[in-house]
Structure to design on (399 residues):
């Protein structure tokens, strides 16, 4: 029995089912604290995916408070995802996205069926490292991230990324390498846990994590990465119309040296598909849905999102964004940006890729727009632009 991510190891000596007791030998000394995890390597634990309390928490708290994501622990097979989705749908939470945490051997073996049904994956390396040999965790991480990248599902890499910063103000070099390698693998998000929940150096940990990610991304060849993702997608399945549209938009942006990809989206699916092809430039998502904005902004790689009143007047929206590109220093007059929009409205309506030229004189003629106080722009780092969160203002909220 492994406790606290393997810090304490127990060997079972005997089991008394009648008394409900297990006698164990403690194999090493460790301080474990309270409410720590426990793993049984090699044992198939046949427990329900959701307990009654889990269901109550989802229905009475999660859906009632309009949460954006449900993170499901110890998902073992695809049907587990279907069970969670049915509970959400039956209680008015069908818009809530599901993040499946892969934490055991059974979940790893059924990864493809889980990936097909989930909205996102969390590579939960702490518990997973108790179920499989630690020297194989990096292989599992690379496989899970690679497969999720191919189908355009976002991935979170978590656990023990900067573990030493729970007690130390600086990380080890190995920890920084671990974070950077997760970025190289293709992860969309990296997550801190004990470093920010327990330690006194939480602010320093966040800064180190962010700086390491920026440094790693600055050395990626995004043109080659685009081609790699496209080739992998074509080799695995017949690309859909929307996939092809997203790929074409990114390829066009690369070819013409565009400074921005603008997406008008009801559901956020187009943003997910464009992000999948890993453009090196910012992806601006305009949507009338606050939930979609929250579920894409800062979650999908390279995306930041605005809530707009309507997507009906495409030309007016493009003109307004035109002003922001200049005022925030993302581009200058004469630069190009790529716009994905539709000739009709509603989910799945995007069917156009347009190239627009930045015209700063439009701003001079019309004055400051409703969006002018938003996104402060992206700071160039080694010629790569990173998104930053903005603030909500009248008419258009950046979530």
């Amino acid at each position: 029995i492994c406790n606290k991510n393997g810090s304490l190891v127990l060997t079972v000596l005997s089991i008394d089912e009648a008394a409900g007791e297990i006698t164990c030998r403690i194999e090493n000394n460790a301080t474990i604290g309270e409410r720590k995890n426990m793993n049984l390597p090699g044992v198939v634990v046949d427990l329900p995916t959701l307990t009654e309390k889990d269901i109550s928490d989802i229905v009475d708290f999660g859906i009632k408070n309009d949460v954006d994501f449900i993170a499901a622990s110890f998902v073992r097979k695809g049907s587990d995802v279907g069970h969670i989705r049915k509970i959400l749908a039956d209680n008015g939470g069908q818009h809530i996205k599901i993040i499946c945490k892969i934490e055991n051997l059974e979940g790893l073996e059924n990864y493809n069926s889980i990936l097909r049904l989930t909205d996102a994956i969390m590579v939960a390396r702490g518990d997973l490292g108790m179920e499989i040999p630690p020297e194989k965790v990096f292989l599992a991480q690379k496989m899970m991230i690679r497969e999720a990248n191919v189908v355009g599902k976002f991935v979170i890499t978590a656990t023990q990324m900067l573990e030493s910063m729970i007690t130390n103000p600086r990380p080890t070099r190995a920890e920084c390498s671990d974070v950077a390698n997760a970025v190289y693998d293709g992860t969309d998000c990296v997550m801190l846990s004990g470093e920010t929940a327990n330690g006194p150096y939480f602010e320093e940990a966040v800064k180190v994590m962010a700086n390491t990610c920026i440094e790693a991304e600055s050395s990626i060849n995004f043109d080659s990465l685009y081609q790699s993702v496209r080739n992998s997608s074509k080799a695995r399945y017949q690309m859909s119309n929307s996939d092809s549209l997203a790929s074409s938009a990114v390829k066009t942006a690369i070819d013409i040296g565009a400074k921005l990809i603008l997406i008008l989206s009801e559901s956020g699916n187009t943003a997910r598909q464009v992000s999948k092809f890993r453009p090196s430039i910012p992806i601006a998502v305009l949507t009338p849905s606050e939930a979609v904005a929250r579920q894409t902004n800062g979650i999908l790689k390279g995306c930041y999102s605005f809530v707009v009143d309507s997507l009906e007047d495409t030309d007016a929206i493009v003109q307004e964004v035109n002003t922001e590109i200049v005022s925030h220093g993302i581009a200058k007059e004469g630069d190009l940006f790529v716009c994905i929009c539709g000739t009709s409205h509603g989910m799945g309506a995007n069917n156009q890729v347009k190239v627009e030229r930045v015209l700063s004189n439009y701003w001079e003629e019309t004055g400051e727009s409703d969006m002018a106080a938003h996104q402060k722009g992206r700071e160039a780092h080694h010629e790569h632009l990173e998104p930053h969160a903005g603030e909500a203002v009248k008419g258009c909220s950046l979530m």
